[in-house]
Structure formats: C-alpha cells, structure tokens
Amino acid sequence: MEYDRLLNLSTEIGYGLLESGAEIYRVEESIQRILLAYGLTTGEVFAIPNCITVSLVTPEGKALTRVRRMPTHGTDIDLLELYNDLCRHLCVETPSMDEAEARCGAIRGRRRAYPFWVELGAYFLGAAFFTLFFGGTVLDALCGGLCGLSIALCLTFLTRLRTNLFFKTVAGGAVSALLALGLSLIGLGKNVDFITIGALMLLVPGRIGTSSPELGVPVVYAEISQFSAICEVAYGKAGYHPDLSYGSHMFQDMVEADVYYGAINDNSKTRLYRPELLTRYPEVLKDILPGESQELADIVKIHDVSRSGATLTLDAQEGRAVCRIRGEQQTAER
Questions:
Q1: Which of 142-156, 206-220, 258-272 has the highest mean pLDDT?
Q2: CA 144 to CA 136: how far, in whole Å?
Q3: Residue 122 Rama label (left phi>0; alpha psi -120 to 50; beta)
Q4: pTM
Q5: How far, in Å, are 170, 272, 277, 328 from residue 268 at the CA level?
Q6: CB 297 within 8 A of CB 285
Q7: Do 126 and 135 form a contact (C-beta atoms < 8 A)?
Q8: Which of 117, 123, 216, 270 matches a 20 to 30 Å C-alpha distance to 90?
C-alpha cells in the first residue's frame, strides 16, 4: 500500500467536502472511513472551517501528516453530492489508488462557474425574499432586491481590487443601507428596517464566538472566561446544519482555565439531548439585563439551575460527557 498516496487522497477528498460546504463532522467522519476501508486504524483527523489536518502511522511505524489550509469558500451542493458518492464508492469497493485519484480529480474539474447575470439575479431574489420574510411589502421586496444588487456590484468591484473579506462585508452593508434609506425617502419603500435587514442577510456572519470577523460575530475570551462549561449545538431545524467552531479560536485559553467545551451534533454521537428540561427552571435574563430583556428574550435564554443540583461529568480521554439534573433522567450525553 502506498500510504503517501492514500494520505493525499483522503486529505484532498476532505478538502473538497469542506470547500463544497460539508459540515465539520461529515468531513472528519468521511476521511476516517476512507482510511479504515483501506486497512488503516491509526488515522487521525482534525478539521476546522479553515484547515484540515490528517495524520496516520504506517504498519512500519512511520508517521505521516498532511495539512491543507482552507480559504474563504461557499457552498456547492452538486459537488458535495459527488464527493459523498465518491466516499461511499471508496469505502465499499476500495478501488486502486490510480482509479480513486482519477475520480477525485474528475470531480475537482466539475466546479461550476455561473454567469455574472445569474449571480446578480440570485442577489436580487435572495434580498427580496428576506425582505418579505421579515414582514415587508411587495414594494419593500423590490427595494430589498435593488439593495441586494448594490451588494453584488460592490463585492464584485472590491474583489477585483483584492480587498479583504471583512472590508468588503462592511462596504457592502454600508452601500446597501444607504440605498435602502434613499429608496425610502423618495417613497418607493415603506419600511426601511425590513429593506435593510433583508439585504444584509446576504452578508450575515455564520458563527458566534470567533475572533475572526469574517467568520462570525467577534467574542474575546475575557467575555466568556467565567463560564464553567461551553457547549455548541448544531441546530438543524432551520433546514441546514451550521459548522461548529469547536472552540478552535480560543481552545488553549479554555484548556488552561479548565473550561469544559462540548459539541452536540444531530447524529449518533449524541445519545440523548433534551433542552426542553431547562424550561422547568426560571429565566433570569430580565434580572441580569432589565433594560434589554424584552428585546433579547427570543434570542437569549438564561435559566437558573443553581438549586437543581445540576452536575456535569466528563471523560476527556473517551470524549464523553453527561449532564444531569438531580431528580431528573439524564439530559444530554455526548
């Protein structure tokens, strides 16, 4: 077995999955399954949204590692399906390296590029839909679509100037907001707030708790340093499964401060997850932020379980954790 080629192949497939928009757990699990299919039980995979690291130890004891940096990317469902099919084929048939590499290369050559007018149409329709979704009128939706077009043109222009993503996002939002205000002042749009938010949904960041503005809403470690445990949930009821940060941007600080980090995914790794049990305990957001509690009530939930005897037991070596509330059945196991 040519283990260098196997390492490169599995890493490239993982890279393609992540670049196409696959969830982190899917990328890691796919690479692990490919390595196992070819007889390797010593493979280790670590993936975060902007990097993949794959390592293995050959039967002769030689350690091999491959790292791939992931640039800013979007989502391509067609490519994602092709990579998923390739993973299943490799795990079931285990073809030769020549055939596997050829199929992987063929998929990379099928990346689709849309005409500029199609991209403009997508921006227009996306912004118009979100404006209607948030309660705007048909005229508001038209204005939202025009603001979406302004974002597309702004991003295209700044991309040609090789501007970084953070500045492009700020500039696109500013241009869109100014246009929304102007359209409302001339009477074309009635609800400037709906028009603005409908267009800005095209620029909304993907993850809270990151130190990189281009990846999400910035949070520094000092703001969460008093937590005993932090758990991210892959909430999929909105129709998609967002990538979790896995604490990667502040992991060392959390380890040193003995802050437990956990991830709850909607898959077999999560044995039991019952967040509804928290509703039995009082919400205290209004006591902490009395002036802002009404505005944040539908977004932030803080339950006081201090009198419930809540405990968190974890086994770091096995990667398992159980959260219990005294007198209740177990509430989550990861």
A1: 142-156
A2: 9
A3: alpha
A4: 0.49
A5: 39, 9, 21, 22
A6: yes
A7: no
A8: 270
Print burial letters for 102-137: b (CB count within 10 Å at least 16), e (below 16): ebbeebeeeeeeeeeeeebbebbebbbbbbbebebe
Residue 146: predicted pLDDT: 92
Any idea which residue has 């309660």 for tokens?
135
Residue 286 has a CB neighbour count (10 Å cut-off) of: 15
Chain centre distance of CA 232: 11
- In three-state form (DSSP H/G/I as H, E/B as E, the rest C), the secondary structure along 223-271 is HCCCCCEEEEECCCCCCCCCCCCCCCCCHHHHHHCCCEEEEECCCCCCC
Between CA 159 and CA 154 the distance in angstroms is 8
Q: How many CB atoms lie within 10 A of CB 140?
A: 26
Give residue for tokens 């398992």: 320
Q: How large a percentage of the chain has pLDDT more than 90?
A: 13
Q: Six-digit token pair at 14?
A: 């993982």
Residue 8 has pLDDT above 90, yes or no: yes
Q: Residue 19 is encoded by which pair of tokens?
A: 């670049």
Residue 39 neighbours by CB under 8 Å, 6+ apart: 1
Closest C-alpha to 211, from 174, 251, 173, 242? 251
How does 157-186 read in b/e, with b if 16+ C-beta sit within 10 Å?
ebeeeeeebeebbebbbebbbebbeebbee
> What token pair was written down for 199?
């267009």
| Cross-sheet strand order for the sheet of 51-57 | 44-48, 51-57, 63-69
Assign 134 to helix, strand or coil: coil
Q: How far apart are CA 134 and CA 176, in angstroms?
A: 17
Check: CB of residue 130 under 8 Å from CB of residue 198: yes
What are 146-171's pLDDT values in tens digits?
Answer: 999 998 898 888 888 877 777 888 88
Q: Higher-confidence residue: 274 or 237?
A: 274
